[in-house]
């Protein structure tokens, strides 16, 4: 198969991305993803509730939607058939749910009255989040072939140039799907589309299942869909993610403070910042952990990093640990660092990081069976691990790590501050090998991909 792949060129102010192709067998679009992983709703004999659909883009049916869920609660299903659009123009508190299903084959679409939502949306203190609605309760399932549409274009346009994590950012954008205090929540089949900010955020919940989803955020202007992470969480346990297609502009699967036990299997992330554990350790005095996670069978394409861990450093940050994380069976194409451990998050320079190092311990991390190639942005450096001198960083291992450099040199793994050996050769960032590798940036076509794909 013919492949012509150009990296996002390092150093250069402009980047060139032309004409790349996915490996054979890897879906290239939502349609191909659906063809490879078909989704069929199951028949059901649950009590059926319907509501009227919107007749135009400003016909707000949020009152009807709320009423429909109240009626369907305790054993029923709210049906939202194909071809119908349901416009939501008011914040909805849906935290009363118990044993309710939503069969979403149509579209739920939020209005894009940005000043209205900024004034009336729900709020969560974590990273200054705002939300269109809140879901919560027990035994909740949303399934179908429909769409949850965040209508994000106006939000991205108006936010353009902003930086969400800057303390002085005042332009807040709603999260498309927010869940709080839920037990046994399942989201299946639907397309999560064009979220203004994070796509999903799960808070103080357990037994979460996300399957067969497509998640996209695609701009029609030059304003990019920033911070549209597929998955973020706070205080959750027992998470299953399976067969998900993601094409957005930030983190792919990215649990934050306090996640225990997650299994991610079969994901395609295009143009993302990576499968990211964290960031954690952001807030002064606060403990945060991420523990017991397996992320496997993943294609990371045209993004920033692939397997990633990030913890905050700097004055006034928190502490905690990331423990027992396995990244297994990764295929990376055209990513900056395919494995990246960053203990100097967010946006601080090396001297500030050295002065106020991260207090997040990193232990028992495995990167196993990585194939593919990097983007050349960091030359022949294909992976980088930076541990904190103020925290434990132990048992970080690589096994069958075969990421090549498109710049043609021997791939180099950079590591600083790690206790013990990592299973493959690595050099520190001031070594002559690292310096030379980082300098050897490239602008040429990528290496040929293996066919068939390795898993
Ligand atoms: C949208 O639909 C509502 C309800 O049917 C109607 O009152 C309103 O006039 C319509 N607006 C437009 C712009 O068509
Ligand atoms: C979630 O639970 C916490 C603790 O019980 C409570 O303070 C909070 O109000 C709940 N949130 C909702 C939306 O019910
Ligand atoms: C994949 O991501 C790249 C870079 O963001 C983008 O140019 C391309 O359109 C995306 N492809 C698909 C199929 O979504
Ligand atoms: C995270 O869990 C720790 C206990 O391990 C707790 O002290 C901390 O408050 C939790 N963080 C949040 C944001 O709830
Ligand atoms: C590490 O996490 C995985 C995934 O939750 C779990 O299956 C495994 O038992 C954990 N290992 C240890 C040593 O706790
Ligand atoms: C980090 O490791 C050190 C040394 O084992 C330990 O004293 C400290 O409690 C750990 N931090 C956390 C948050 O568990
Ligand atoms: C690093 O950042 C700090 C805080 O912004 C600044 O005071 C310092 O001058 C910077 N140091 C270097 C070497 O750029
Ligand atoms: C590593 O990847 C390259 C390029 O895809 C391939 O030629 C080589 O056989 C692989 N090596 C191993 C040990 O898998
Ligand atoms: C980095 O590696 C070089 C050898 O390549 C060594 O001389 C130097 O002391 C190392 N620096 C640190 C901080 O370990």
TrEMBL record:
Reactions this protein catalyses: [(1->4)-alpha-D-galacturonosyl](n) + H2O = alpha-D-galacturonate + [(1->4)-alpha-D-galacturonosyl](n-1)
Q: Where in the cell is it found?
A: Secreted
**Any single Pfam family the record assigns to this protein:** Glyco_hydro_28
Query: In its UniProt record, which GO terms are filed under biological process?
Result: carbohydrate metabolic process; cell wall organization
User: In which broad location class does this protein mainly occur, judging by the first location in its UniProt entry?
Assistant: secreted
GO CC annotations, alphabetized:
extracellular region
Query: May I ask which residue range the UniProt record assigns to the signal sequence?
Result: 1-18
Q: What is its EC number?
A: 3.2.1.67
Q: What does this protein do?
A: Specific in hydrolyzing the terminal glycosidic bond of polygalacturonic acid and oligogalacturonates.
Report the sequence similarity comment from the record. Belongs to the glycosyl hydrolase 28 family.
Q: Write down what this protein is called.
A: galacturonan 1,4-alpha-galacturonidase
What organism does the record attribute this protein to? Answer: Coniochaeta pulveracea
């Amino acid at each position: 198969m013919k492949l012509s792949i150009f990296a996002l060129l390092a150093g250069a102010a402009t980047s060139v991305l032309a004409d790349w192709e996915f490996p054979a067998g890897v879906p290239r679009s939502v349609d191909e993803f659906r063809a490879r992983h078909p989704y069929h709703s199951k028949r059901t004999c649950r009590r059926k509730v319907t509501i009227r659909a919107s007749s135009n883009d400003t016909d707000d049916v949020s009152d009807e939607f709320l009423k429909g869920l109240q009626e369907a609660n305790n054993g029923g299903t709210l049906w939202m058939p194909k071809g119908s659009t349901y416009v939501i123009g008011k914040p909805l508190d849906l935290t009363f749910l118990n044993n309710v299903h939503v069969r979403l084959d149509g579209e739920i679409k939020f209005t894009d009255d940005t000043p209205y939502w900024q004034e009336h949306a729900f709020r969560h203190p974590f990273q200054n989040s705002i939300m269109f609605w809140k879901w919560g309760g027990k035994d909740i399932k949303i399934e179908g072939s429909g769409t949850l549409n965040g209508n994000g274009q106006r939000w991205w346009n108006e936010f353009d140039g902003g930086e969400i994590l800057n303390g002085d950012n005042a332009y807040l954008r709603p999260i498309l799907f927010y869940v709080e205090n839920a037990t046994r929540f399942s989201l299946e089949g639907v397309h999560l589309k064009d979220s203004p900010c994070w796509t999903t955020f799960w808070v103080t919940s357990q037994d979460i299942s996300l399957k067969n989803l497509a998640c996209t955020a695609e701009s029609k202007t030059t304003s990019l869909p920033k911070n549209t992470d597929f998955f973020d969480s706070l205080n959750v346990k027992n998470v299953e993610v399976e067969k998900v297609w993601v094409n957005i502009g930030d983190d792919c699967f990215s649990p934050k403070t306090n996640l225990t036990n997650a299994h991610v299997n079969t994901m395609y992330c295009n143009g993302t910042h990576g499968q990211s554990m964290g960031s954690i350790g952001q807030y002064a005095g606060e403990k945060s952990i991420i523990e017991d996670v397996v992320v496997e069978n993943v294609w990371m394409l045209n993004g920033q990093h692939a397997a990633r861990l990030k913890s905050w450093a700097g004055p006034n940050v928190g502490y905690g640990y990331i423990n027992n994380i396995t990244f297994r069976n990764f295929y990376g194409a055209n990513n900056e660092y395919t494995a990246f451990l960053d203990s100097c998050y967010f946006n601080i320079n090396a001297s500030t990081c050295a002065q106020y190092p991260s207090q997040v311990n990193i232990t028992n991390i495995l990167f196993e069976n990585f194939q593919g190639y990097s983007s050349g942005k960091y030359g022949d450096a294909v992976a980088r691990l930076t541990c904190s001198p103020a925290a434990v960083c132990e048992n970080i291992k690589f096994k069958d790590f075969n990421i090549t450099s498109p710049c043609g040199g021997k791939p180099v793994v950079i590591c600083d501050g790690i206790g013990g050996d990592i299973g493959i050769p690595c050099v520190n960032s001031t070594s002559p090998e690292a310096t030379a590798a980082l300098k050897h940036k490239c602008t040429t076509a990528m290496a040929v991909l293996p066919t068939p794909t390795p898993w």
